[in-house]
Design goal:
The chain has helices spanning 14-27, 31-57. It is mainly α. The protein has a domain at 14-48. It is elongated, with a radius of gyration of 17 Å. The model has no long low-confidence stretch (mean pLDDT 92).
């Protein structure tokens, strides 16, 4: 089963785009795949951090 994909545009600094392009090319990775995985990883990290913060605020009874 495949996930529906949508087109998203973003503006990033040119040096970062060039670095991304070169990295992906040299490692045989599609830029789209790299960016998708990076977004997933960042969102997981944010959620873990938010859950940790929320747990720390719970009263200790």
């Amino acid at each position: 089963m495949s996930t529906k994909k949508i087109l998203m545009g973003s503006r990033i600094p040119e040096p970062l785009a060039l670095e991304l392009r070169e990295y992906c090319k040299s490692h045989g990775i599609l830029m789209n795949h790299f960016v998708s995985e990076a977004i997933k990883e960042k969102l997981k990290k944010i959620k873990r951090s938010e859950e940790k913060t929320k747990a720390e605020k719970l009263p200790m009874n």
